[in-house]
Amino acid sequence: MVTGTMGKPIRFRAFLSCSIRPQDRYWVDFVREKVLRPNGIGCCTVGVDVSAPQPPLDTMREWIEKSDCVVAIATARFEARDIQCPQDKLLLLPYAVDEELLMGWLSGKPLVVFKAEGLSATGILGAQKTTWIQFDPSDSLSLRRQSTHPLIISMLRNLLRELKQRKRMEITRRVLDWGAKGLALLGAYGLGRIAARADTDEVPDCFGEHDGRFKACRECPWRKECQEEKYEVEFEE
Fold this sequence. Notes:
- The protein folds into two domains: 12-145, Rossmann fold (3-Layer(aba) Sandwich); 172-229, no CATH class.
- 41% of the residues lie in helices and 14% in strands.
- By secondary structure, it is of the alpha/beta class.
- It has helices at 25-36, 56-66, 95-106, 123-126, 149-195, 215-219, 223-229, and strands at 12-17, 41-44, 69-74, 78-81, 89-92, 111-116, 132-135.
- The protein is built from seven helices and seven strands.
- α2 packs across α3 (95-106).
- Mean pLDDT is 77; it is low at 1-7 and 193-201.
């Protein structure tokens, strides 16, 4: 079983959209190793973790579809000026990050963005399709400061809550699909098997919060799946 840095199993995959230039490596490693992996979220970045003999856009699309969410580290790559007002300067993120954020949004994936201060909000950011946690690219401690911790913890809790909810929906769909196939293949016998779980097709709202001290948890028909999903938010300093 693949585990995170704190020994937690990798339950979700994030498509990590970021610059692969050396000057941005610190921020990428921080988010990957200190924020995501300790909370059971593995990462995939085109050009780092995967490559394929096909156009990059096709590879991006394929792996975004395979991922549970898109996490972007938006750092500045380009400087642009308004022709009419040359004193107005814009700092723009890498084209690939902009495109991957758009693909993630079009695919309905949860979006999380770490945005460098001074970076112009364009594309998905400008359209306010997601919020972001801002950091100072000139200060290596800006994401480690105590004042930033509540923002990161809140983001992680919201992201994990949404990912768990989506997984609950997927499990429910699988149970219903299994029931339909069982009925078709096994007839009356299959109907009896399905009826035994008919009242539990809807995954409980407390899914992922298993606590063996409580009788309701010990007797819940979802206890096995629930135990596999239980973990708390962690943030390594």
